[in-house]
């Protein structure tokens, strides 16, 4: 009989790529991970890993077993959710991840709703970039999270993770002069900024990738001067004449008077993410309902 805990380690190795990364994520030592994977290979009766020096890759049999592991872990998550629903209503710790603008604009109102409807829940919020959410959910560090995607940066399907739509918002070009119109239906307005310095988020984030790809779609590579993740700081730098930037609607709060905003045909969509099979868990269902009730009226309903 295959041990589900060892199947989880194999699944994480398939997604994270190294034994050290699996050990860090799941609070094991690398030697313990290696030992458990060795036991799994003996249980399976066929080689699951191919070791070359320090690198480890999955054999075809290992990859096939990971696909089965995904299905098994989803069913176990669903069973856990059904048992929780049978035992009691939403109660206990609930670990929520969210990106900064959602943490400010949506999460506080959702927590207030949650406190009224389900006072036995103990929500704990952590800010996290959407790119790191799938790993955190699979590792059990989070129960639910808000993620986003842009028109130019669609989110790839993450194994073991399910998402549901929450809301959408538009994106603006922020500049320190009024040379642009207040709205546009195409990206030609970006091309007029091809010689301007640009302010983007830090590399590796979806916001950074969105800016680069939008500029490329307009026919140029942006000349990046500053890399800032906080949109309030981005707008302050724009007002100081340090460059132009693309800012989603939720990132625009009391912008400086010197900042001019041009609405663009670029949208950002926010989704609710959780482990596959967990949608009916009372706590996950409760925070999902609260988040939907907390979406500001000026955002695009999904």
From TrEMBL:
Pfam families hit by this protein: HTH_1, LysR_substrate
InterPro entries: LysR_HTH_N (IPR000847), LysR_subst-bd (IPR005119), WH-like_DNA-bd_sf (IPR036388), WH_DNA-bd_sf (IPR036390)
UniProt xrefs under CDD domains: PBP2_LTTR_like_6
Chain ranges of the HTH lysR-type domain: 2-59
The entry's keywords: DNA-binding, Transcription, Transcription regulation
Protein family: Belongs to the LysR transcriptional regulatory family.
Protein name: LysR substrate-binding domain-containing protein
